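Standup notes
- HV: blocked on the assembly model, inputs below
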Amino acid sequence: MSEANTTDQVEDLQSKALRELKVASDTEQLEAWRVAFLGRRGELTQVLRGLGSLPAEERRAAGAAANAARVALEQGLEDREQQIKQADAAAGMAGEAIDVTLPGWPVPRGGLHPTTRIVRDICNSFASMGFSVVEGPEVEWDTYNFEKLNIPKGHPARDMWATLWVDHTDEDGDHPMLMRTHTSPMQARVMEKSDPPVRVVVPGRCYRYEATDPTHEWHFYQVEGLAVDRGITLADLKGTLYEFARRIFGAERKVRFRCDYFPFVEPGVDMSIDCFLCDGKGCRVCADTGWIEIMGAGMVHPKVLEGVGYDPNIYTGFAFGMGPERVALLKYGIEDIRLFYANDLRFLRQFA
Ligand code: DAH
């Protein structure tokens, strides 16, 4: 092998290798290329090994060319590796980039809780009869929850409301605090703040220290109602509540009024609707009575009016307090009131 031959051969090899390097496009191909030219049995390595057998005069030039070729190939490999890495990174970013032409993810729409729906339905039905909607505190003074409602301390009527007391009293120490057992305290709060005529409904949460069953919860909503003016009678009460029942349940539903006792009304009544499940025959939902009681009502007691500074000789009024979850039981055919606050989405989604 002549000097010129070996040197030419090395140069040819170098340009062939660099040409092939240009088309290697991933790490695997780069590695194959490295093995083919620079590996232990690679073409250039063979040439370098063969240098020893060349005559001394040829060896120099051929050796220099071969070393230069090795440096060029190693440098070429490094550069190509770098290029491929950058291209991969750019492609990766392109993969993550947002394609604005794709359809978006559907945004799941929430729904209103069945209690919220029924409370709104109830309030709307009264609003259209001229009542305004107000709200009040869930943590209440004994004074408003009981005393101003004609339920003095120590009176047995207090047993009607199993009360959750709050460990707090006012400065005098004789007005305990509690979780309101009903929305009726708002009757006094509203009348203290305004002169008659009054026409309000008060939706809100109430709390009782009570065992639960299909129609009782320890925490529930009420919608209180109050109408006070000159000349209001029990006929107004019945007319208003019949109209409410017609709007919420439809005209076919049976409504029953019975005498009942509540310390803050005289006379007092309760209103029931025929059971949706057994059509009045008696079942576990209606406790075998055929009826489901949805509210207490009555003519505001003169003592309550006096207590807030209204003259009972001039003004009369009616009040009512209903359980919206019970209204929902009847309206939607739900068999257990405890489902409302068990947070089972399979139940709640049916109302969304
Ligand atoms: N507050 C009563 C309760 O929780 C319900 C009630 C009865 C409210 C008669 C009234 C009413 O306004 O007149 O049991």
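- HV (later): unblocked. DSSP finds eleven helices and ten strands in the chain. The chain has a mean pLDDT of 90.
- Next: hand off to the docking folks.
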